[in-house]
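User: New here, please read:
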Amino acid sequence: MSASSSRLIKLLHVGNVRDDDPCPPYDCQDAISVERTAWIDDNVARRFWNCKNSLAAKGPKCKFFMWKDKEMEEGYYKEQLRKMRFELKRKEEFSEVSKV
């Protein structure tokens, strides 16, 4: 796994599994999509559905993607989430440096 793809995975959090409604026919015919949470600046803490095969290391990657939440407006709460994410990342980096 490349450094960029491992960073991408760290920005996502897998939550619920949705198997009641199959993924629309994209690259795979899998009936399971997962709820993930984006932690990038533009969509901080925004949840979405995508196929469990979208991050597969081998084989075809499914392109199914659907937002679960509406986009959060710019403002106080979105900025607070960004600050909390930044502090958590800083603490994780400090923890990694402390191990060395």
In short: The chain has a mean pLDDT of 74. Residues 21 and 31 are 7 Å apart (CA to CA). Residues 3-72 form one domain.
